[in-house]
Amino acid sequence: MKALVYTSPEQLEFLEVPDPVPRPEEALVRIDSVGICGSDMHGWLGHDDRRPAPLILGHEAAGVIAGGPREGERVTINPLVSCGKRECPACSTGRDNLCDERQIISMPPREGAFAQFVAIPEANLVTVPVGFPLEWAALAEPMAVSWHAVRLVREGTGKRGFESAIVIGGGAIGFGAALALLEKPVHVTLVEANAVRRDYAGNRAERLAADPDGFAGGSFKVVDPDSIGDSYEVVIDAVGNDATRAMSCALVRPGGIIAHVGLGGGSGGVDMRRITLREITLVGTYAYAPGDFVETTRMMFKGIFGDLNWTEIRSLSDGAGAFQDIRAGRTAAPKITLKPWES
Question: What stretches in the chain show pLDDT beneath 70?
Protein backbone atom coordinates (compact mmCIF):
# COMPACT_ATOMS: atom_id res chain seq x y z
CA MET A 1 0.00 0.00 0.00
CA LYS A 2 0.97 3.66 -0.26
CA ALA A 3 1.63 5.61 2.93
CA LEU A 4 2.97 8.96 4.05
CA VAL A 5 5.90 8.05 6.30
CA TYR A 6 7.62 10.31 8.82
CA THR A 7 11.29 9.53 8.20
CA SER A 8 13.11 12.25 10.19
CA PRO A 9 12.30 15.67 11.68
CA GLU A 10 10.45 17.78 9.10
CA GLN A 11 10.64 14.98 6.53
CA LEU A 12 7.71 13.00 5.13
CA GLU A 13 8.00 10.55 2.24
CA PHE A 14 5.22 9.02 0.15
CA LEU A 15 6.29 5.38 0.04
CA GLU A 16 5.20 1.87 -0.78
CA VAL A 17 4.97 -0.12 2.49
CA PRO A 18 3.57 -3.53 3.48
CA ASP A 19 -0.17 -3.77 4.09
CA PRO A 20 -1.08 -4.00 7.80
CA VAL A 21 -2.07 -7.44 9.06
CA PRO A 22 -5.02 -7.34 11.48
CA ARG A 23 -4.62 -9.13 14.79
CA PRO A 24 -7.42 -11.25 16.26
CA GLU A 25 -10.53 -9.13 16.89
CA GLU A 26 -9.19 -6.41 14.59
CA ALA A 27 -10.48 -5.17 11.27
CA LEU A 28 -8.68 -3.84 8.23
CA VAL A 29 -10.04 -0.44 7.23
CA ARG A 30 -9.58 1.06 3.79
CA ILE A 31 -8.96 4.70 4.63
CA ASP A 32 -11.12 7.23 2.81
CA SER A 33 -10.21 10.40 4.75
CA VAL A 34 -7.63 11.22 7.42
CA GLY A 35 -7.02 14.56 9.12
CA ILE A 36 -3.77 16.24 10.12
CA CYS A 37 -3.69 16.83 13.88
CA GLY A 38 -1.51 19.16 15.92
CA SER A 39 0.09 16.09 17.50
CA ASP A 40 1.07 14.93 14.00
CA MET A 41 2.74 18.32 13.56
CA HIS A 42 4.63 17.91 16.84
CA GLY A 43 5.81 14.48 15.76
CA TRP A 44 6.86 15.74 12.32
CA LEU A 45 8.85 18.56 13.91
CA GLY A 46 10.70 16.03 16.08
CA HIS A 47 9.16 17.39 19.28
CA ASP A 48 7.47 14.18 20.42
CA ASP A 49 9.68 11.31 21.52
CA ARG A 50 6.57 9.08 21.62
CA ARG A 51 6.61 9.20 17.82
CA PRO A 52 10.06 8.09 16.67
CA ALA A 53 10.89 7.86 12.97
CA PRO A 54 10.26 5.96 10.80
CA LEU A 55 6.54 5.94 11.52
CA ILE A 56 3.20 6.36 9.77
CA LEU A 57 1.41 9.21 11.55
CA GLY A 58 -2.30 10.10 11.43
CA HIS A 59 -5.14 9.05 13.74
CA GLU A 60 -8.23 11.06 12.66
CA ALA A 61 -9.71 8.73 10.10
CA ALA A 62 -12.77 7.22 8.50
CA GLY A 63 -13.13 4.59 5.81
CA VAL A 64 -14.65 1.26 4.81
CA ILE A 65 -14.02 -2.16 6.38
CA ALA A 66 -12.12 -4.41 3.98
CA GLY A 67 -12.78 -8.11 4.55
CA GLY A 68 -14.51 -10.13 7.23
CA PRO A 69 -18.20 -10.26 8.19
CA ARG A 70 -18.49 -6.44 8.26
CA GLU A 71 -16.88 -5.93 4.85
CA GLY A 72 -18.14 -2.80 3.12
CA GLU A 73 -19.36 -1.11 6.31
CA ARG A 74 -18.62 2.61 6.44
CA VAL A 75 -16.92 3.48 9.75
CA THR A 76 -15.16 6.19 11.69
CA ILE A 77 -12.24 5.20 13.89
CA ASN A 78 -11.70 5.71 17.60
CA PRO A 79 -7.90 5.51 17.46
CA LEU A 80 -7.37 5.09 21.22
CA VAL A 81 -6.89 1.44 22.18
CA SER A 82 -7.01 0.65 25.90
CA CYS A 83 -6.32 -2.57 27.80
CA GLY A 84 -10.00 -3.12 28.64
CA LYS A 85 -9.14 -5.19 31.70
CA ARG A 86 -11.69 -5.45 34.49
CA GLU A 87 -9.00 -4.73 37.10
CA CYS A 88 -7.85 -1.54 35.31
CA PRO A 89 -9.09 1.43 37.39
CA ALA A 90 -9.45 3.56 34.26
CA CYS A 91 -11.08 1.08 31.85
CA SER A 92 -13.38 -0.35 34.53
CA THR A 93 -14.84 3.14 35.12
CA GLY A 94 -15.20 4.15 31.47
CA ARG A 95 -12.13 6.41 31.48
CA ASP A 96 -10.09 4.45 28.96
CA ASN A 97 -8.23 7.63 27.96
CA LEU A 98 -6.40 7.39 31.31
CA CYS A 99 -5.45 3.71 30.94
CA ASP A 100 -1.77 3.16 31.75
CA GLU A 101 -1.53 0.66 28.87
CA ARG A 102 -3.37 2.79 26.30
CA GLN A 103 -2.13 2.87 22.73
CA ILE A 104 -3.09 5.05 19.82
CA ILE A 105 -2.57 4.53 16.13
CA SER A 106 0.33 6.76 15.00
CA MET A 107 2.42 5.78 18.05
CA PRO A 108 4.46 2.58 18.31
CA PRO A 109 3.57 -0.21 18.32
CA ARG A 110 0.64 0.91 16.12
CA GLU A 111 1.19 2.54 12.74
CA GLY A 112 -1.11 5.40 11.82
CA ALA A 113 -3.71 6.19 9.19
CA PHE A 114 -1.75 8.33 6.72
CA ALA A 115 -2.01 5.26 4.55
CA GLN A 116 -4.40 3.34 2.33
CA PHE A 117 -5.17 0.82 5.09
CA VAL A 118 -4.98 0.62 8.87
CA ALA A 119 -5.64 -2.20 11.33
CA ILE A 120 -7.77 -1.38 14.38
CA PRO A 121 -9.86 -3.36 16.92
CA GLU A 122 -13.42 -3.77 15.69
CA ALA A 123 -14.66 -2.40 19.02
CA ASN A 124 -13.09 0.94 18.05
CA LEU A 125 -15.23 1.32 14.94
CA VAL A 126 -18.47 3.32 14.82
CA THR A 127 -20.80 2.77 11.87
CA VAL A 128 -21.35 5.83 9.67
CA PRO A 129 -24.86 6.20 8.22
CA VAL A 130 -25.26 6.03 4.46
CA GLY A 131 -25.21 9.52 3.03
CA PHE A 132 -23.06 11.03 5.77
CA PRO A 133 -19.77 12.15 4.14
CA LEU A 134 -16.73 10.21 5.27
CA GLU A 135 -14.76 13.48 5.14
CA TRP A 136 -17.03 14.70 7.93
CA ALA A 137 -16.89 11.37 9.76
CA ALA A 138 -13.10 11.70 9.97
CA LEU A 139 -13.72 14.72 12.24
CA ALA A 140 -15.20 12.47 14.93
CA GLU A 141 -11.86 12.17 16.71
CA PRO A 142 -11.06 15.90 17.10
CA MET A 143 -14.73 16.66 17.78
CA ALA A 144 -14.68 14.03 20.54
CA VAL A 145 -11.66 15.78 22.09
CA SER A 146 -13.64 19.03 22.03
CA TRP A 147 -16.82 17.44 23.37
CA HIS A 148 -14.90 15.74 26.22
CA ALA A 149 -13.40 19.10 27.23
CA VAL A 150 -16.80 20.80 27.19
CA ARG A 151 -18.33 17.94 29.18
CA LEU A 152 -15.67 18.31 31.88
CA VAL A 153 -16.30 22.05 31.96
CA ARG A 154 -20.03 21.51 32.44
CA GLU A 155 -19.39 18.98 35.18
CA GLY A 156 -16.98 21.42 36.82
CA THR A 157 -19.46 24.28 36.81
CA GLY A 158 -22.18 22.03 38.22
CA LYS A 159 -25.77 23.16 38.58
CA ARG A 160 -24.94 26.86 38.33
CA GLY A 161 -24.02 26.50 34.66
CA PHE A 162 -22.44 29.36 32.74
CA GLU A 163 -23.37 31.93 30.11
CA SER A 164 -20.04 33.06 28.67
CA ALA A 165 -17.01 31.20 27.39
CA ILE A 166 -13.90 31.98 25.40
CA VAL A 167 -11.96 29.46 23.34
CA ILE A 168 -8.31 30.19 22.59
CA GLY A 169 -7.23 28.82 19.20
CA GLY A 170 -9.13 28.45 15.94
CA GLY A 171 -7.84 25.05 14.87
CA ALA A 172 -10.05 21.99 14.74
CA ILE A 173 -10.09 21.43 18.52
CA GLY A 174 -10.85 25.07 19.28
CA PHE A 175 -13.45 25.42 16.53
CA GLY A 176 -14.98 22.11 17.58
CA ALA A 177 -15.10 23.25 21.22
CA ALA A 178 -16.98 26.38 20.16
CA LEU A 179 -19.53 24.23 18.30
CA ALA A 180 -19.86 21.89 21.29
CA LEU A 181 -20.43 24.85 23.64
CA LEU A 182 -23.13 26.17 21.33
CA GLU A 183 -25.17 23.02 21.92
CA LYS A 184 -26.40 25.03 24.96
CA PRO A 185 -27.35 28.75 25.12
CA VAL A 186 -23.83 30.06 25.70
CA HIS A 187 -22.20 33.25 24.41
CA VAL A 188 -18.97 31.99 22.85
CA THR A 189 -15.94 34.00 21.78
CA LEU A 190 -13.23 32.32 19.71
CA VAL A 191 -9.85 34.07 19.67
CA GLU A 192 -7.39 33.32 16.85
CA ALA A 193 -4.11 35.12 16.15
CA ASN A 194 -3.67 33.99 12.53
CA ALA A 195 -5.59 36.43 10.32
CA VAL A 196 -6.24 33.89 7.55
CA ARG A 197 -7.69 31.33 9.93
CA ARG A 198 -9.54 34.04 11.89
CA ASP A 199 -11.32 35.27 8.76
CA TYR A 200 -12.31 31.73 7.85
CA ALA A 201 -13.71 31.05 11.33
CA GLY A 202 -15.50 34.40 11.31
CA ASN A 203 -17.22 33.57 8.03
CA ARG A 204 -18.32 30.23 9.45
CA ALA A 205 -19.67 31.99 12.55
CA GLU A 206 -21.68 34.34 10.34
CA ARG A 207 -23.14 31.38 8.46
CA LEU A 208 -24.17 29.79 11.74
CA ALA A 209 -25.72 33.07 12.89
CA ALA A 210 -27.94 33.04 9.80
CA ASP A 211 -29.39 29.70 10.96
CA PRO A 212 -32.13 30.37 13.54
CA ASP A 213 -31.39 26.99 15.14
CA GLY A 214 -27.62 27.42 15.03
CA PHE A 215 -26.92 28.76 18.51
CA ALA A 216 -29.57 27.29 20.84
CA GLY A 217 -30.12 30.82 22.16
CA GLY A 218 -26.42 31.71 22.47
CA SER A 219 -24.02 33.60 20.20
CA PHE A 220 -20.67 33.09 18.47
CA LYS A 221 -18.06 35.66 17.55
CA VAL A 222 -14.45 35.42 16.39
CA VAL A 223 -11.84 38.00 17.45
CA ASP A 224 -8.12 38.69 17.36
CA PRO A 225 -6.11 38.64 20.62
CA ASP A 226 -6.11 42.46 20.84
CA SER A 227 -9.92 42.66 20.78
CA ILE A 228 -10.90 40.38 23.66
CA GLY A 229 -11.69 42.90 26.37
CA ASP A 230 -14.01 41.04 28.74
CA SER A 231 -13.56 38.32 31.32
CA TYR A 232 -15.27 34.96 31.04
CA GLU A 233 -16.77 32.29 33.22
CA VAL A 234 -15.14 29.55 31.15
CA VAL A 235 -11.83 29.57 29.27
CA ILE A 236 -10.85 26.68 26.99
CA ASP A 237 -7.20 26.72 25.96
CA ALA A 238 -7.03 24.73 22.73
CA VAL A 239 -3.41 25.75 22.07
CA GLY A 240 -1.60 25.00 25.32
CA ASN A 241 1.60 27.05 25.29
CA ASP A 242 3.08 29.52 27.78
CA ALA A 243 1.37 32.55 26.21
CA THR A 244 -2.10 31.00 26.02
CA ARG A 245 -1.90 29.69 29.58
CA ALA A 246 -1.07 33.23 30.74
CA MET A 247 -3.98 34.53 28.64
CA SER A 248 -6.30 31.97 30.22
CA CYS A 249 -5.37 33.02 33.74
CA ALA A 250 -5.86 36.69 32.84
CA LEU A 251 -9.27 36.17 31.20
CA VAL A 252 -11.07 33.89 33.62
CA ARG A 253 -13.49 35.42 36.12
CA PRO A 254 -13.31 34.77 39.88
CA GLY A 255 -14.84 31.36 40.54
CA GLY A 256 -14.49 30.41 36.87
CA ILE A 257 -12.91 27.42 35.18
CA ILE A 258 -10.01 26.91 32.77
CA ALA A 259 -9.93 23.77 30.63
CA HIS A 260 -6.43 23.06 29.31
CA VAL A 261 -6.77 20.98 26.14
CA GLY A 262 -3.89 21.99 23.88
CA LEU A 263 -0.47 20.38 23.94
CA GLY A 264 1.48 23.20 22.34
CA GLY A 265 4.40 22.85 24.73
CA GLY A 266 6.18 24.64 27.53
CA SER A 267 5.32 24.68 31.21
CA GLY A 268 4.96 28.37 32.07
CA GLY A 269 2.12 30.86 32.08
CA VAL A 270 0.07 29.46 34.98
CA ASP A 271 -0.51 32.13 37.64
CA MET A 272 -1.11 29.92 40.66
CA ARG A 273 -1.47 32.90 43.02
CA ARG A 274 -4.28 34.30 40.88
CA ILE A 275 -5.89 30.86 40.58
CA THR A 276 -5.80 30.47 44.37
CA LEU A 277 -7.01 33.96 45.31
CA ARG A 278 -9.88 33.83 42.80
CA GLU A 279 -10.86 30.21 43.42
CA ILE A 280 -10.38 29.32 39.77
CA THR A 281 -10.71 25.68 38.74
CA LEU A 282 -7.98 24.41 36.40
CA VAL A 283 -8.88 21.20 34.56
CA GLY A 284 -6.57 19.16 32.38
CA THR A 285 -8.52 17.37 29.66
CA TYR A 286 -7.00 14.62 27.52
CA ALA A 287 -8.57 12.89 24.51
CA TYR A 288 -11.99 11.37 25.35
CA ALA A 289 -13.67 8.44 27.02
CA PRO A 290 -15.34 5.83 24.77
CA GLY A 291 -18.73 7.22 25.74
CA ASP A 292 -17.64 10.69 24.62
CA PHE A 293 -16.62 9.33 21.22
CA VAL A 294 -19.92 7.53 20.67
CA GLU A 295 -21.95 10.51 21.91
CA THR A 296 -19.99 12.82 19.60
CA THR A 297 -20.72 10.68 16.55
CA ARG A 298 -24.41 10.50 17.49
CA MET A 299 -24.61 14.30 17.59
CA MET A 300 -22.63 14.65 14.38
CA PHE A 301 -24.92 12.30 12.51
CA LYS A 302 -27.99 14.18 13.83
CA GLY A 303 -26.54 17.49 12.65
CA ILE A 304 -26.35 19.03 16.13
CA PHE A 305 -22.95 20.58 15.33
CA GLY A 306 -24.21 21.88 11.99
CA ASP A 307 -22.62 20.97 8.70
CA LEU A 308 -18.99 19.93 9.09
CA ASN A 309 -17.82 21.26 5.78
CA TRP A 310 -14.92 23.21 7.28
CA THR A 311 -11.99 21.15 6.07
CA GLU A 312 -9.60 21.52 3.16
CA ILE A 313 -9.27 18.31 1.13
CA ARG A 314 -5.94 17.26 -0.36
CA SER A 315 -4.35 14.11 -1.70
CA LEU A 316 -2.21 12.05 0.66
CA SER A 317 0.60 12.35 -1.88
CA ASP A 318 0.53 16.11 -1.16
CA GLY A 319 0.78 15.49 2.58
CA ALA A 320 4.33 16.83 2.93
CA GLY A 321 3.24 20.11 1.34
CA ALA A 322 0.21 20.27 3.61
CA PHE A 323 2.43 20.01 6.69
CA GLN A 324 4.62 22.82 5.38
CA ASP A 325 1.58 25.02 4.69
CA ILE A 326 0.19 24.46 8.18
CA ARG A 327 3.52 25.34 9.75
CA ALA A 328 3.76 28.52 7.67
CA GLY A 329 0.24 29.60 8.61
CA ARG A 330 -0.97 29.53 5.02
CA THR A 331 -4.05 27.38 5.65
CA ALA A 332 -7.40 29.00 6.41
CA ALA A 333 -9.51 25.95 7.27
CA PRO A 334 -9.25 24.53 10.80
CA LYS A 335 -8.40 21.11 9.36
CA ILE A 336 -6.65 19.63 6.32
CA THR A 337 -8.02 16.21 5.41
CA LEU A 338 -5.99 13.88 3.22
CA LYS A 339 -7.34 11.36 0.70
CA PRO A 340 -5.15 8.24 0.26
CA TRP A 341 -6.95 6.90 -2.81
CA GLU A 342 -6.74 10.07 -4.86
CA SER A 343 -2.96 9.86 -4.81
Answer: 159, 212-215, 343
